[in-house]
Structure formats: C-alpha cells, structure tokens
Amino acid sequence: MTETVGTGAAAGQNKKPNKGLTVRRVFTTEGTHPYDEVAWETRDVVMTNWRDGSVNFEQRGVEFPEFWSVNATNIVTSKYFRGAVGSPRRESSLKQLIDRVVRTYVKAAAEHDYFAGPSDLEIFEHELTWMLLHQVFSFNSPVWFNVGTSSKQQVSACFILAVDDTMESILNWYREEGLIFKGGSGAGLNLSRIRSSKELLTSGGTASGPVSFMRGADASAGTIKSGGATRRAAKMVVLDVDHPDIEEFIQTKAREEEKIKVLRDAGFDMDLSGSDISSVQYQNANNSVRVSDEFMHSVENGTDFGLRARLTGEVIDRTDGKKLFRSMAQAAWECADPGIQYDSTINDWHTCPESGRITASNPCSEYMHLDNSSCNLASLNLLKFVSEEGTFDAPLFAKAVEFVITAMDISICFADFPTEPIADTTRKFRQLGIGYANLGALLMALGHAYDSEGGRALAAAITSLMTGVSYRRSAELAGVVGPYEGYARNAEAHQRVMRKHAAANELVRTYHGNDAAVRALASQEWQQGIELGVRNGWRNAQASVLAPTGTIGFMMDCDTTGIEPDFSLVKFKKLVGGGSMQIVNQTVPRALKVLGYQAEQVEAIVEYVAQHGHVVDAPGLRPEHYEVFDCAVGDRSIAPMGHVRMMAAVQPFISGAISKTVNMPESATVEDVEEIYFQGWKLGLKALAIYRDNCKVGQPLSTAKKKEAAAEAEPEKVVEYRPVRRRLPKKRPSQTVSFTVGGAEGYLHAGSYPDDGLGEIFVKLGKQGSTLSGVMDAFSMSISVGLQHGIPLEFYVSKFSNLRFEPAGMTDDPDIRIATSVMDYLFRRLALDYLPYEKRAQLGIFTADERSAEVEANYGGQSMDVEVLRSSVDASPARSEESAKDTSERDAHSTAELMELHLGKAADAPLCMTCGTKMRPAGSCYACEGCGATSGCS
C-alpha cells in the first residue's frame, strides 16, 4: 500500500515537491529478508538439442528456490545469467540476478526522489525482490539481459520507427531497424508516407513504391537476424488501406507462398529453417493493413473507396471496398498475412493526438503509440492472486500493480535506447506496458469456460482494475516527480481517454460475486485516478498492453501466456536430475474442486485426462462442465470467435492492444476470415491476426531420435589397428562439400580409399594466407595422418563434435541445422558420410531423411497410447501433478509435441532454432518451453 506525500505538481508542469511516496509492506515482513523465507537448493543445468545430442548450454551448481521448476531454472540460467560461462564473474544464483536488477531500480529511485525516505526505499526493494522471487511478476527480457551490467541499460522490448518519402529516410530506416535487431529486439513501422508506384518523382520518373523498398529491409532482417542469434528478426510492416499500392502489399506474402509450393514440389528444402527458404522474400516481417472506419463502412455498404496520393492527399484511383476486403481475407486464408489494424479505433483511444497520430505497432501488435518510440513491459502472474477459497484477491492484486508500475516508470530514468529519436520520444511520453499472464489457467481454476460470459466478465474486470490502478499510480507519481513532458499539450485528450476507460468499466456486466467485487474496486480506482490526474496530470502517456509473455511466462512457471487460453490439459515436465514426464495441468483438479466434485471423482477424471488428453466422456464429469476444460488445441478446441470475444471484452481496458493470433481450422473458408476481420472492427478491437491450420508450406514437422534401426545397416569393415601408415593411392575417390556455419563459409574436401573408408581431409576456411587458414591446414594434415595410421573416424567424431566456439549457429546443411562450432559441423558431416548407421546411432547423429522416417514409423499418423505410471503416483487430487505419464521412452519433447501425439497430426508451429524443440503459440509469436527462445520481440 502506498501514500503520496506532497501537494502535487500543477498539470502540465514538471515541478517536484519536497517529499515522495511512502510505502507499506504487503508481501514482506519487517526484519526478515525475502531470501531468508524460502528454501534454496543447488542444481545442474545441462541443456541439449535432443535431435543431435549436442549440448546447447551447461552450467553446474546454480542456486534456485526449491519451488522453482526445472524448466524455469534452465531458462533463467541460460538466458538471463550474465558473465562468461565458467568464469568467476558468471552469475550462479537467482539471488545475484534479482539483486542486480532490483538494486539498479532502487538506486535510480533514490537519485530521482521517488520515495519519501530510506525506509520506503528498503520496503520497495524488498517488495520487488519478494514478488520476483515468488514468480508474482516479471520484467520483460531486456531488463534481465541489460540492467545492472556493463552493457547499455536497454529496458524496452517494443519499438516503433518512422520513415518518410525520401531516400535518406528510407536508408536510415534500414540502419535503425538493423541496430534494433542486433540488440535482440523488434520494430514496426508504417510505410504509407512513401509515394506509390502510381505517382511521379520530382525528376519526372515513376516512384518505386513501398513494396519495392520492403525487399531490401527484408533481406537486411534475414541477414542480421536477432541479436546475432539463430532466430529471425521480428518486425512489423504496416500500410494504410487508402495507399494506391495496397493491393500489391496485400498479395506480397501470398505470392511468395505460391513460390514456396513450387520450389518444394521441385525438391528444394523449404522448411522454415531450410537451406533454400532464403530465396523467398518478405518472410521476416508480419504485414498488417491499417483500415479506417470510412473503409469498413464501404465494405459494410458495398460502396467504392478512394485511394489517395501520398503527397497531395487527392483521390487518384477508386476500388470496390468489398473486393479489396475479400482480397485481404483471401491472402490471410492462404498464408496468414496480412493482419488487420483498425486505425480509427486506435486513434480514438489515443492519449496524445496533439503530438501525432498512431500509425504503427511493434511486431507483436500490442504496443501502439507515437512514431520513434518504445515501451518497456512487465507482466503479472494472475494465478498468484487466487485465494484458498477460490476467489480472485483484487485488493492484493491492486497493491502488486502499484509496485510494478512504479518500478517500470523508474526504469525510464536510467534506460538507454537504440536511437536518439526513440530516446527523446520515450523520455517525453514515458510509455509503459504492464500486463499479465496465466489468464486461461486462472479462468479454468475458478471454474469458468474461456468462451463464456462469466469468463469474459472476470477477465474484463481484472484488466480494468490493472489499468485503473496503473493510471491512478501514474497520477500519484505525477504529483511527486511531475507529469510526462508531453502531457500539457495533450491534457484534454488524455483526460477524455481516461473517462472512456472508466465508462467502459461501468458497462461490464457481472455474473458472479467474484467478478462483481473486482469490478467494484476497479470503479473506485478509475474515479480516484481521474480526480488525481485532473489535479496532477499523469506520469505516463500509456500504461498497459497485453504482450505474448513467452520467455518470462516460462520464468514464472505459467501454464498459459498473455491472454491465451490453456494450450492443452496435459503438458511436458522436466524432472530434477534429467528425464521428463507428461503431467495433467494443476488447474484441472483445482477447477473440478471448485465445480463441486468429490476427491474420488477428481481422481478418476484426472486419470482419464492423463490417458486421453481431454475430458470428453470422463467418468462422472457432467457434460455441462466440458466447456470449462476447452483449450487452444485438442478435441474441444475453442472456436475462433471465442478468441475474438475475449479480446473484445478486455480491449477497452488496455492502453495499447493485444498480442494474439486467432487460430482457425484448416476447413475454415475465406468468408470465415472475412467475418473474423469484420467482427473485430464491430467489437472494437485495435488489431487482429488469424492463422489457418496448415496454410503455410514452410512449417517443419516435429521429428524424434531413432531408438531402433529403421533399416538393416551395412556390415562393418574390419580394421587392423596398429601404428602403420596406410597411404592413399595416387588416384582416389573424393568429395567436396561447401558449407556455411553461422555466416562463415568454407569447403571440406574428403578423400577415400578405393575399398571405402575415409583417408584424408582438407578444410578451407578463411582467406588464403590468414592465420586461420594456416591453422586449418595443419589441423587437416594431423587428422589425415591419424586416419591413415588407423585411428577410427568415430574416435575423432566423439572428440570433436559438440565443441562450442564461434563461429556457430545455423548451417546451410539440411541434415545438420545447427552447429556449435565449425569442428562440430565438420565431424558430424563426416560421420553422416562415412560411418554406418549403428555407429552414428551411438553418437546420436542422423540424417534428415532418417529422422523423417522415424516420424512415419513411430507416429504412423495415429495418436499413441501411453500408460499411466502407477508405481510412483500419489493419486490424491491435491497432488494432481503426480498423475503423470512417463514420456522418457516416447518421442515428445515439449507440450506441443505431446499434443501432436494425442491428436495424431503435426502442429503448425516452427521448431526452435536453438534446441530443436517444437515451439508453441504465445500471442502472435511462438515460444520454446525447452530453452525459452521466442520468435517475437519480447
């Protein structure tokens, strides 16, 4: 709980009263540090790529609380601990990580007079520490990467750029985007200021149009990738619907998808990470069309719509609104792009219209504000606020929001930014993006169906409370350290939007005592916040977004990400000491208890779910309760409009927008896509994207290691081992392989004995005459002499594969997608070419065809029946997590792959480029629960 001391600053001014905030303890106990309240244990983190057996990451002896899962431990250790692995400066405890971040925030708070005194600073430090330690919330990834280190203190994950109709601006766009990608983040921008291909240049020639410039930016993004890592960069490209080149923009990715099909049928490797996919354009960005109310009315009424010149604004062409809308739906049906952004709605909720329109979003579509700006994010774990009685603790949630939003604003005081325009805008408007995760799990645990009036009412009330508290605290901060610099110019508009939020809160229809209590508190917060804001102004131009929460969701051990429903009723759990098991989500027995089922009934239903992956025909479960357990995928998956209705319920209480893709079945029609896009507008959404199952060619199948030989292997050669050199004949068979590892190109020349068997290698890497070239020559001669003296190739393979050093990363070899070093690649390639299957199997090295054959042999297109482990299971409902299925002998390595086994078909999700695990949806992006990697910007 907090109180504001001081008379406040006049709205629009940056006066600082003498005193700051006073705060009270909520989660902590005076005299006891949060670290002393929990039991700690030491763990070893060893993460492997299960497809080839290589070790992706290893750090032993790390310290974490006992209640943190193995998965959260692995992801935090590998992603967020700073310092070189193996060096004394490497972080080895969660305490060090939290202290590094929290103490930086506390130091900045002291320097900028946020709190009344030292005791308030101590409470603030302890409360943040406690909440992070207990997984109540998390900052976005850049905070964990950068804060408190020698790196630039970048705290934002979301960026919006700007580009004008000049070559200088276009080239600067390429540069700025590249800098953001290099830093591991993503950016979005609107290209509508660029003249169309139907307009003239001042020189008299015809303009190229924005789509032509998209090619250069796409190639740059594909080359730089993100943060120098192996995943592609995240970017969003937006074009206004009245741009004369809008039809070309709509068709860009659909046409490329046709190209992918043709190349695939011709035998090229067109998987998402395939060696030939780089020849396809526009694959590094999400595309969205920005539509206005004027255009949507033309669609609704069947009238023409004018396309306008960029420089003069005059109508230079007309199009049929319905036809253009159908074109958008058709392209999205074919390849999931473009998405849609509702411009009039976005700008109607804009707090700062006097400073410029909102024209674009970040890559995941949740952050929408001024051009050349950024937003730092933090998300709360909603399940942490469920009481023992099965209610949502709204007052506790409000107090947590106070601390989190205060910390987020403090971060802008010390943050660094990738460009000066972004730094200037962000410091003037102080955009924040508080949000939450685990909504789907929360609703299920409280007995609400995701697609239900009661579920939507509770979600709306919680979201309203979160944003209402955030703006109330923002107004209190404005009274202590002043409003944001751009407030005075936008005071009237900002107050208008606050009143719109408050009015929407009063329109929420409640159905239960739970959602009614949350909404009542939200009403108080909006009323108090508006009164304070009119007096003080607000510290922040925006407060909330709903982000994908991919990596940080795993850090908090969340079952669901962002606004998403539960992905499935069963999930994949890693065990201490290695191994894994399939478990039934903890939310299932919690929901059954809330719904009134007895312990024996809960036990039987949980066991049924463990066997079947769904609740249909579960013993004793009433059919009217089936909907409570509906998930994103499976036998009872949530209908597309169910996702849209949930987004519409919470959108009026979000400053920005919602990162979410509406999944549609393969059988969905173009008319179905049109209806989703049209209803998104009618229901007041700001942005929407769809994905129709199996619409993309480049989605790779999940594959698994072989455990038995798929075919009879060639008989082994008998080799006499003695120190006698067996030289190669003058003429001998050989092969040369060109390769690329992490961008480094080279050639491997391998010579064989006429009766088979490798006898020599030569490796060309680096420029002739360079030190690296000389070292590789000497190394090649040493290996060649060893081979000719009878040292088995498998010995060298076992010694040199999985070595880790730069260059490392993606290769252009379809059999070896990722290499941890050039040595790792070379000896695994030699093993594939020269070793028999049995020896390669022992080394965990397989070809792509062998892995694909395993999928066909093991899956056979049918779901697999897995027995319930009874010997080690406590069947009591309180320990539902132990109602488990042993998957150590199965082919699933993630929750997404478990669902593939249950459904008998491959999921439309990419494989993680870091660890090879099938990813799962997280908002409009994907996240890997194996290593925490994301395909988005957060």
UniProtKB/TrEMBL annotation:
Regarding protein family, the annotation reads: Belongs to the ribonucleoside diphosphate reductase class-2 family.
What is the name of the protein in this document?
A: Vitamin B12-dependent ribonucleotide reductase
Report domain Ribonucleotide reductase class II vitamin B12-dependent N-terminal positions.
Answer: 45-135
Region Disordered, as annotated, extends over 871-892
* Database matches in Gene3D superfamilies: 3.20.70.20
Stated role: Catalyzes the reduction of ribonucleotides to deoxyribonucleotides. May function to provide a pool of deoxyribonucleotide precursors for DNA repair during oxygen limitation and/or for immediate growth after restoration of oxygen.
- InterPro entries annotated for this entry? RdRp_reductase_class-2, RNR_2_N, RNR_lg_C, RNR_NrdJ/NrdZ, TSCPD_dom
Q: Where is the composition biased (Basic and acidic residues)?
A: 879-892
> Which controlled-vocabulary keywords does the entry list?
Cobalamin, Cobalt, Disulfide bond, DNA synthesis, Nucleotide-binding, Oxidoreductase
Work out whether the entry's keyword set contains Oxidoreductase: yes
Family annotation (SUPFAM superfamilies) = PFL-like glycyl radical enzymes
Cofactor(s) listed: adenosylcob(III)alamin
Residue span, TSCPD domain: 729-833
Per the record, what are the reactions this protein catalyses? a 2'-deoxyribonucleoside 5'-diphosphate + [thioredoxin]-disulfide + H2O = a ribonucleoside 5'-diphosphate + [thioredoxin]-dithiol
Ranges for domain Ribonucleotide reductase large subunit C-terminal come to: 156-691
Q: List the GO molecular function terms.
A: ribonucleoside-diphosphate reductase activity, thioredoxin disulfide as acceptor
Q: What is its EC number?
A: 1.17.4.1
